[in-house]
Design a protein that fits this description.
- The protein is an alpha/beta fold.
- It has helices spanning 15-22, 51-63, 82-102, 133-159, 177-187, 197-201, 207-214, 230-236, 263-275, 293-318; strands at residues 2-6, 29-33, 67-72, 106-109, 163-167, 191-195, 218-223, 225-228, 252-255, 281-284.
- α2 (51-63) links the parallel β2 and β3.
- α7 runs parallel beside α9 and α9 crosses α10 (293-318).
């Protein structure tokens, strides 16, 4: 197991500056955004037309001992606004092609969410089966939009030696293990998940149990925590539409690892990943509004380093 970084948190810095910051923390693996929601500050899709630029970029990373765990293009390729959907889908397509050129085998995206009909203007997502209208919408979304798109896109990715890692996220049709496995059953083994435990916590899902259920469908992992503030959650539940900046009144907040759940959880989480055969990157994603980027990254890297080292020592002892 190794520690990586989703570089979107340093969008204002060059990649060379990012590498200079992460090396003292023992991080040698980066996840790079290519467009859509995370933006693309450190890698550009227009490099596809410049093989020399791709070669130069790969060499620069190799010279500094840095590898790429995944390219991320989190978006909504199923958006009912055709202009948005097409743009997000095109970023995904080009990201797959760029990943192939860079020798990267994983591309991360959201599943997306359609509207309720062909005439919709905005996505329509609901976690409830009643009133029955929602079940009709859900059936239409999966049969007419979700399955056709992802079957085709997963096949395209597989043809280019790339695996699609869907991040389970409420607001999109794939938001938990059940919906992820449903899509994987339709789209094939080239589609799995980018497992982010922070989105499991606030839904009441046990991340370790979820990892066991997903098994080989876990392709990539984010290291991000969630703190449930029971003072608010016990009154209003966890379906919270208040801005993330309203920290005092929200039912939950995304936190730096260790600030939502302690060492006992994270040690068990890493061990569970190893049980299912995942011995790869833990990509730190910083979305902690109560900490600066610098502080959050440093604390997360130091915290995870101790756990990963402990797991390695245990393996050596048993061997």
């Amino acid at each position: 197991m190794r520690i990586g970084l989703f570089t979107a948190l340093f969008a204002n810095l060059s990649l060379d500056e990012v590498i200079k910051k992460i090396k003292p923390l023992g991080i040698r693996t980066v996840e790079l955004g290519t467009g859509n929601y995370p933006g693309s500050p450190h890698v550009k899709l227009d490099w596809l037309s410049s093989p020399s630029r791709i070669k130069e970029f790969k060499q620069r990373l190799d010279d500094q001992g840095i590898s790429i765990s995944a390219l991320s293009c989190h978006g909504n390729p199923l958006h009912p606004n055709r202009k948005i959907a097409d743009a997000h889908a095109e970023v995904n397509r080009k990201t797959i092609l760029l990943a192939e050129k860079l020798g990267v085998t994983r591309v991360i995206d959201f599943s997306g969410c359609p509207g309720d009909s062909e005439s919709s203007k905005l996505p329509n997502w609901s976690p409830t089966p009643w009133p029955p209208d929602y079940l009709e919408i859900l059936k239409w979304q999966w049969e007419k939009k979700v399955i056709p798109y992802w079957k085709k896109r997963a096949k395209f990715a597989e043809e280019h030696g790339v695996r699609i890692c869907i991040e389970m996220h409420p607001g999109f049709v794939v938001y938990n293990p059940e919906t992820l496995l449903r899509l994987r059953a339709e789209a094939g083994a080239a589609l799995g998940c980018n497992f982010d435990p922070s989105h499991m916590f606030w839904q009441g899902i046990d991340p370790c149990a979820a990892v066991r259920a997903l098994g080989e469908a876990v392709f990539h992992v984010h290291a991000k925590d969630t703190k449930i503030y029971h003072t608010n959650a016990m009154v209003n539940g966890v379906l919270d539409t208040k801005p993330y900046s309203d920290e005092r009144n929200r039912s939950f907040l995304f936190r730096t690892v260790g600030y939502g759940h302690g060492r006992e959880f994270w040690t068990d989480f890493v061990s569970t990943l190893e049980m299912i055969g995942y011995d790869d990157v833990l990509s730190i994603e910083h979305e902690d509004s109560l900490m600066s980027v610098e502080e959050g990254l440093t604390k997360a890297a130091n915290f995870l380093s101790q756990i990963v080292i402990k797991e390695k020592l245990n393996e050596m002892w048993w061997a």
